[in-house]
Amino acid sequence: MGTNVIVTGHASGIGWYIAKKFHDEGFNVTGIDKDRTSGLEKSINQIQCDLSNWEAVKDTFSHLNRIDYAVNAAGVSGVRKSVDNITSEEMIESYKAIFLPTFHACKAEINCMVRNDSHSKIINIASSTASFGSKDMVAYSSAKAAIVNLTKVCAVEYAPKIQINSISPATVDTPMIRRKYNGELPDYSDAYLTGNCGTVHDIWTAVKFFIENDFMTGSDLLMDGGYSSSFSPRLKQKEAL
């Protein structure tokens, strides 16, 4: 039978790598995304589904049997505008694209997992921006913060049957990030104490940690290269008299 894993957002980036690593370690992997992806055709079962649509999610999960573990990595960057410029409609669309896929996936996964005869685990991918204020990030950051709190609420409601945690990474080297900078990564040495941004393998090691750990639930693991540990006040120099 083996152990069954769901990975949402498996078509690229973090989700793609996590789905591949689960397969390499012998798990039965089902990837759920709006798109199919190359490179995993013979490794995992791929299902196309718009996770922002609850009816589509219900139909997709009705065809699945046992789910032991789930990693929810689906989501997009959303609109980047300041509070005074973003519209209510743009906020709603951002939540639909960023928060709803994780919410719907969690809900469907939980409905399957409560029937299991053993403990199950869910890991949601959020963002370090959920903990900080940053210009033009009101839609993305607040939606990711909602994912962090969703994780905590679900952990409380379904303990001890299901352990539910989240991972909040800062910048991770993915195709999406590289496209933003025309294929090259910028110099992150001044941003992160580690000297560079994170990798998809870094995120995988955190996922594996949660899979192997039986004494954590409702936790958010901040992976930000030391960014939150560094305090650098911005002082304006007074003009010389």
Overall description:
The protein has 241 residues and is an alpha/beta fold. The chain has one domain (4-171, 199-227): NAD(P)-binding Rossmann-like Domain (Rossmann fold). Helices cover 35% and strands 17% of the residues. The chain contains 7 helices and 9 strands. The mean pLDDT is 93.
Short recap of the structure:
With 241 residues, this protein is of the alpha/beta class.
What is the number of beta strands? 9
CATH homologous superfamily caption: NAD(P)-binding Rossmann-like Domain
The residue ranges in which pLDDT falls below 50 over 5 or more consecutive positions are none
Strand percent estimate: 15-25%
Q: Major sheet: size, sense and barrel closure? A: 7 strands, parallel
> Can you list the strand order of the major beta sheet?
3-2-1-4-5-6-9
Number of helices: 7
Instruction: List the domain count as a whole number.
Output: 1
Shape: globular
CATH class: Alpha Beta
CATH topology: Rossmann fold
What is the N-to-C succession of helices and strands?
EHEEHEHHEHEEHEHE
CATH architecture: 3-Layer(aba) Sandwich
How large, in whole angstroms, is the Cα Rg?
19 Å
Q: Helical residue percent?
A: 25-40%
Give me the secondary-structure category: alpha/beta
Q: Report how far the terminal alpha carbons are from each other.
A: 78 Å
Mean pLDDT: 93
